[in-house]
Amino acid sequence: MSRISLLVIAAVAVLAVVFVSRSFADGNQSLPQVGQQAPDFTLPSQEGKPVSLDSFRGKWVVLYFYPKDMTSGCTIEAHNFQRDQEKFQKANAVVLGVSVDTVDSHKQFCAKDGLNFTLLSDADKKVVAQYGSLGNYAGFKIANRNTFLINPEGKIAKVWTKVDPSHHSEEVLTALNQLEGQ
To answer: Is pLDDT at 22 greater than 60 in this prediction?
Structure first.
């Protein structure tokens, strides 16, 4: 190989590393951080009614993003949040699930799985992106499994990324109890 070819390959490699590093940094920067005001939004619920984040001022909000209705991990996570609804209510907290699925899909998911908390449809993927939670799976845009605990004043109190759906509800309750005790 000629010296010029080696230089070109090295330059391309350096540019690729810089590009990938910036992509990861930008992705992390787009996640709202603890202490920041939570981005406000209005989305339709499984009943088709508009739900706004600011309508929950004075309450804790568990805003969890999940990939797809009626899939195994998402069903486990939803069932656990459903199981713990009374504990969240006692802690003055509301649970809001968000995915890019349609209102009809959410309605079917709630009916099929006996869910009685609010699921929000972000079919335009704007809120998912606002919360740094837009992902790709096999070429489809989905919500990454991230959760934001928002305090009664509307500020981000805790952030979880790439959560394990099998015990995430308990993690959130533990954090909520710790933060309320401060």
So the answer is: no
